[in-house]
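Late entry, malonyl-coenzyme A complex.
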Amino acid sequence: MFLDRLSRHCLVVPNKTAIELLDEYSATEQRISYSQLESAVLQTMAMLRSKGVQPGDRVAIQLRKGLPFVYLHLAVMRLGAISLPLNNGYSAHELAYFLQDSGARLLFAEPHMQSAVQSMVAELPDLQECIVVGETPEHAFERLLAPYSPAAASHIALPDNPHATCLMIYTSGTTGRPKGAELTHRNLTANLESLHEAWGWRSDDVLLHVLPLFHVHGLWVALHGALHAGATTILAPKFDPMQTLDLLVRRPCSVFMAVPTIHRRLVDAAHAERYSLRHMRLITSGSDRLPDDLFAQFEKTFGVRLLERYGMSEAGMVLSNSLHGERRVGSVGLPLPGVEVRIVDLETETPLPDNQVGEVQVRGANVFKGYWRQPEKTAAAFTADGWLRTGDLGMREPDGYFTLKGRSKDLIISGGYNVHPPEVELALADHPAVETSAVIGCPDAEWGERVVALVVLRAGAVASETEMIAFCRQRLAAYKTPKRIVFVDALPRNAMGKVQKTELRRLFCA
Ligand code: MLC
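Prediction complete; structure with ligand written out below:
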């Protein structure tokens, strides 16, 4: 399994750099070898054990990108517990939901969340402790680990049940609040093996990592991918286009993974100058559709063809363009080794012939176990014969390449983040002046789609766009907060009373 492989690297290549952390504040670099990584993970396991963490417990990690995040995440999984990474941009309101729903035992959070968490502790009976980790000496992670030696955890066996959940990622559902997708050791390992084969991961690869660590893309595909291969990861705490270009050109980077918004910013930052990235082995794009013009501009600017792939939190990576063969514009490529993909009729769910658009369904060892404590929603996510219903529409070409053709679910993708409109509509409903609202995604050159809210005010109520955006921002992470609010007299509805979002997009996205 993935964790066994990681531990083996510590024995076989102990001195090799596993992670190089770029510190944005001190402009310094910190190198961690595979054996130092192993020691830090063992020390972290000893600390977690002393706090009572048992197999199956959920440990929430809402920390900025950095080594404590990585150590905690790996240590939690190695104890047989469940790592629950959370966006550090989530508001206290959002955090409360994730803690309550997951029944997390411990939360690792940044200092600015401390008072908010204290005020919610009474409603979180499962939460034993909120441990603050930050820059100051008082909250330094090293200080937390100091009383524990790696030896104190070296006797703990690696998890041996491949079907045990080790990672939980919250995903926006089409109905209700976000759901925790349970991923097992087997899911992670099978998908890493598929990617290893398809993308030719090598131990001498150097990955430049600019993505957040709390999602499948940055955590599982990028960081785990490099660790699984015994490669080196250069961990940048935040994406900055000029710094990224500089590192890609100056350092011996061979692999880079990003979302279209990041690739667009790199092209813009290059200011039509030609920066050659031809020395790079692999540059991937995912989490959102790669626009055709960006695919062409990226190649023109950097001399490299992007490799587009498709995945989701519930299944990791599913489809990918070819490393050595064709990277087809507009296509998400072929099923990864060991992953089955089919296109089915939306009504009957029977498989469709090539070139016909239907729902994309997936089957394989990569596909998740189910939604945390949601048996009905888990059952609804699968067909009787075990195919995962992705809610994405697509078609297969006769040579096996798949193309996505939209979504059957109400979902917005902004800068690679999924935004679930009902969640934003619920936040707006809390505003005393709001009668009702509808949230849509409008095409946007920078973000792919931007969140726009159409709001009907209560009779006699007054509100401004700025004030309402600020209201949402208090409740929602910045990426979910509407970029625009339009006040309307009424929402167009069909005979069943359902808001016609297609009509709203036609009217308001111009
Ligand atoms: C940031 N903002 C966003 C946003 N990201 N708004 C909409 N959509 C987004 N994606 C907000 C900021 O908080 C800020 O708000 C304002 O927009 C401008 O911010 P910025 O400084 O320009 O943004 P930045 O912090 O640089 O972030 C942009 C980004 C980031 C593209 C680097 O969004 C990002 O890392 N995206 C990647 C997401 C990702 O990893 N997805 C993987 C999901 S896994 P304010 O209010 O502060 O001004 C998945 C499966 C798969 O989908 O297949 O991969």
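The first strand starts at residue 17 and ends at 22. Will revisit in the morning.
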